[in-house]
Amino acid sequence: MPDTLTSTGGPARSAADGYDIEAVRKDFPVLERTVGDHPLVYLDSANTSQKPRQVIEAITDFYAHHNANVARAMHLLGAEATAAYEGARAKIAGFLGAADPREVIYTKNASEALNLAANTLGSRLGPGDEVVVSVMEHHSNLVPWQLVCQRTGATLRWFDVTEEGRLDLAKAEAEGLVNERTKVVAITRQSNVLGTINPVTTVARMAHAVGAVLVIDASQSVPQLTTDVQAWEADLVAFTGHKMLGPTGLGVLWGRYDLLEQLPPFLGGGEMIEVVRMEGSTYAPPPYRFEAGTPPIAETVMLAAAIDYLNGIGMDHIAAHEQRITDLALKRLADVKGLRILGPTEAVDRGGAISFTLEGVHPHDVMTMLDARGVAVRGGHHCARPLHDRFGIQSSTRASFYLYTTEQEIEALAEALDHTRDFFDRPRSASRTRHREAGAAARTRRGDSRVAPQARLVEEQE
Question: What does pTM read for this prediction?
């Protein structure tokens, strides 16, 4: 019985350099779709990645041939499911550079993983203590800490960013941001808006120098870059499966085992206990202490298959491809009149999520116009409202890339943006009529019966 259940097919490889973009794209059925007369150009991978057939086949095979609950069932299927579930844990640990598979905790998404971190570490906080985050955080690495601080009386403070979109370490040092009162520092490895890659090891040393715990949200970086949680000197790291070719409904919290042993349970129920009596209970050791109830078993199999796929290509090849595409996109978008890029404008210490504004056009109108030409991007505040406030804007449009993004798709994006700008530069009456028609066509494809442009209606529903 293998330790994981995955499909037998591996990712496409190139004999020349181990990475063949056209061969890779053939593994993704959805990329064969069209949007009206246009080929689908999927540039929303920072939101969720597409899935290769090898990963899709893995979850299908599990449900068809091995489906059972884990731990509780001693029959053959139960043993196979448990072996696959724990085998996936070991594979994830290896992918992260973890010292021990017991350091890997399954959650339902990165948000739950960060809430787990906030609520368990929050048991140590009180008035006078401080938690430090940054203004570039996704709401999932901000709101849980706000709630914990409100509940415990601790104070929330934050790193600012420079005008270029880099973490402002100089300002933090001058203000004594991380100090003897700091108990937790929670920071993103890579911004989902700016693309900025933060120096987490530097931040870890700042935190550890005052006895604080470092929590990293690595949801954007784990799919793109080699991850080494020990080299980062991290204490807790959260990420999600669906951005790295895996399933929705599965996140991971990695933690140093000695720290996890000290933390209380987050959720109560089956499998997280040791002994239960009416007078009280004792709890299982990590990771099971934090995995109450029936876990996402099939999803772990699917994530293991995704890791197999990524490893088959090589994370170094994926990172190099991402940098090439990002560099091309930054240069090409700089030629679009009226476009302002948020964050670093050079492909140095930044990932492939590029957020921008287009002068005179609402980001959701940009999104709708691009969708009519088959280009899928995201418009809004991207669950990072404070960061948009920091740059004096309400929202932005974001294009984000992954291992299947081609140079031709970057050109399609730029051409669609040029078309959108020219469209809104036309006389207002004609522009309004044509925009209503384009928006109605796009909404019809999505099954959206609303008449008004979706941008205006969902601004606060991101």
Answer: 0.90
